[in-house]
Design goal:
Length: about 350
């Protein structure tokens, strides 16, 4: 009697290991992202012909409602692009840094820090304009990341991946309790906070993007330069040191990049789930574990995911709309379940 062994689960996409193929794939991805940008500007709850959409961009008439609708989609498309790319990069960095396939902004307490700072900004300083409280969100995210790293660094082993995750969970629990305590006593703060908390790329303008652009650019540069450091870290600290890697310095550089990217993105659009969690796994299925290719692919995939989610949110709930944070949760959850069932999820 013979027995058969179940076949191993196949990857969703065959990895493109060769550099020319990866470079070609990146170029094709950029072209497809450009197509998505055109669709995002042209498609929405209000039906606009391609001719009117083009006229809105080239000869804008402020009294034409079609032109106004098209113009309003430009800043939200830009916000979706930069926030999606930032979250994709931040998620890849966090999973590589902590060597945890479930790493996301929540594990390091960044979302909780941003949320707590926004609530305090609304409650203590009376800030109600997004231009004001984005800075509270950014400062809170950075402060939470520093606190998590300091707490995790205590002891002989330093900030190990497990200690980082535990410290992040503790800080998140403490800050969530603080946010709840403030909101239950101030309904006016709750109303303002609720709009930001859901996660949205609508209602923002290009001025807010320009405010946070320096942080996003510096964070992206640090992230894209961290590929070799993350590849060495994936082999373990002892091997990384044996290869001449300064583990503490590498961890600090990657940590700064995470704070800049995730803090600025969260400040701009609110805490958006699943992008930083799912995108690295999809990118890893295409590129393999090499972070030098995985990081640019993650930026591209994150931007595409958020643009598509925003368009879906505008179309499926016509004449209203679903905020992009709700759409990413609906789209990302089943995708993540499929990824969890694949053996490649654990291969960081």
């Amino acid at each position: 009697m013979t027995t058969t062994t179940p076949a191993a689960a196949a990857p969703l996409v065959r990895p493109l290991r060769r550099a020319p193929a990866l470079a070609a794939g990146l170029l094709v991805g950029c072209v497809l992202l450009g197509v998505l940008v055109v669709v995002s500007v042209g498609v929405g709850a209000r039906q606009v012909s391609p001719a009117d959409a083009w006229a809105a961009l080239t000869s804008f008439d402020p009294e034409n409602f079609d032109h106004a609708a098209v113009r309003s989609r430009v800043p939200r498309t830009v916000v979706a692009l930069v926030v999606g790319a930032a979250l994709g990069l931040a998620g890849t960095l966090m999973q590589g840094l902590t060597r945890n396939p479930l790493g996301d902004p929540g594990i390091l307490g960044i979302n909780a820090g941003a949320s707590a700072a926004v609530v305090l900004g609304i409650f203590v300083a009376g800030v109600s304009d997004p231009r004001g409280y984005v800075w509270f969100a950014f400062a809170g995210a950075a402060a939470a990341a520093v606190v998590v790293h300091v707490v995790a660094s205590a002891g002989r082993e330093g900030a190990t991946p497990v200690k980082l995750a535990l410290a992040g969970a503790c800080v998140t629990a403490a800050l969530t309790s603080l946010v709840t305590a403030v909101l239950v006593t101030r309904t006016d703060a709750l109303d303002t906070f609720r709009f930001w908390q859901v996660g949205s790329v609508g209602g923002r303008d290009l001025g807010q993007v320009a405010q946070l652009a320096p942080f996003l650019v510096v964070g992206a540069v640090l992230a894209l330069a961290s590929g070799r450091m993350l590849d060495a870290a994936a082999l373990g600290e002892d091997v990384a040191r044996g290869l001449g890697q300064h583990v503490g310095r590498a961890r600090a550089v990657v940590g700064v990049a995470v704070v800049l990217l995730c803090g600025a993105a969260t400040a701009l659009a609110g805490p958006i789930a699943f992008v930083g969690l799912v995108v690295p796994h999809v990118g890893r299925a295409i590129t393999g574990p090499d972070h030098r290719w995985l990081l640019p692919y993650s930026a591209l995939l994150g931007a595409a995911l958020l643009v598509v989610s925003d368009v879906l949110g505008r179309v499926v709930a016509t004449p209203g709309q679903l905020e992009v944070g709700l759409v990413t949760a609906v789209v990302g959850a089943p995708v993540f379940v499929v990824l969890v069932r694949r053996r490649r999820l654990a291969e960081l």
